[in-house]
Predict the structure.
Amino acid sequence: MTLYIKTIAPSDLHNEMVRLKQERHMDFLVNLIGMDWGEDGGLGVVYMLESSETGETAEIKTATSAREHPYLPTVSDLWQIVNIYEREVYDFYGIIFLNHPDMRRLFLREDWQGFPFRKDDKAEEENPLRMDNEPLADTTKEYFLNADGSVGV
């Protein structure tokens, strides 16, 4: 049962999340998803919350139109898992979460230029494949079950 879906200004996000956690008992952050709604919609996040007491859910959307320096407030002080989720959004969309305790890339290399999930990303131009400086790891093993129940390679 969805409680509501609401769009919040970045300046109101943290207070609304505190209210939802305290008053509506939204103790479980199911997920947060980074989004690029283009030039008109901006860069932002959709938060999915749930109350383990009542089963109610809420979806909160926030966005910034500042594509060059996209800042949103962190909510990592409210749910521990947000620490990783916000780093993932930063890594792929370039959104910087203010007051986040560890704002660095999570999946991509530190020398990666740009943010690959943004609609205006130029990763192909800025990050050509470097195939000569790293060993190829394009191998696999086939595992099978033997008649005696053991696993073979």
